[in-house]
Amino acid sequence: MVDIVRKRFGLLGRNISYSFSKGYFTNKFNSENFAGCTYENFDIPEISAFPEVVKNTSDLKGLNVTIPYKETVIPFLDKLSKKAELIGAVNTIKVTKKGKLKGYNTDYYGFKKSLEPLLEPYHKKALILGTGGASKGVAFALDELDIPYTFVSREAKENAIDYNRINATTFDNYQIIINSTPVGTSPNVEAFPLIPYEFFTEKHIAYDLIYNPAETQFLKKAKQHGAQIKNGLDMLIFQAEKAWEIWNK
Which residue numbers delimit the Shikimate dehydrogenase substrate binding N-terminal domain (predicted)? Predict the structure, then answer.
């Protein structure tokens, strides 16, 4: 009888019962016959509980990281990939053979791969709604695509404008509007970022990193004015497969 090697993976976050990752990886392990592989949610109230998760989880090989810990997890890691260091946010952790924790960012890869097929020559600049950990991967991907961008925050900051500044001229200058905030995520499906949706046109892309619901209010309102819309599902699948590649290399 062959001994099955047990490998445990999981998602680190807060209030993550809705999460895509557990269902995705559980289906993957079952359908592709990865015997011994399991995936579970590590739902912790504060990042300070993270060391206990690692200490008390035997056979742990890798973790995905979601809101709100993509930045605050970094001090708990032993090292970062070059890109994760540049981005300043981590959404994938590999437990090395020596038991060290190495942080990676696969968000930027998933976002870039899902946005690229939509781009036309007139998509010249991007507006990123939100300045949290998810926005950092988006910004890095836009840098790689040579698309200039501006952050939007609830309050004007050194590197961000506030929502009150967005007007018709903004929409003339920025043809890609990306929601990197959690506003509109299930169960709060009626919420939406406060921007003037009437200025969307068919030459705009409205991209929402949210995947549940599949069509947020942000996307619905943009679509009503002709914008091309895209939710975060493909990005999630691409980043998940990249994480799996990292855990197994």
Answer: 11-93
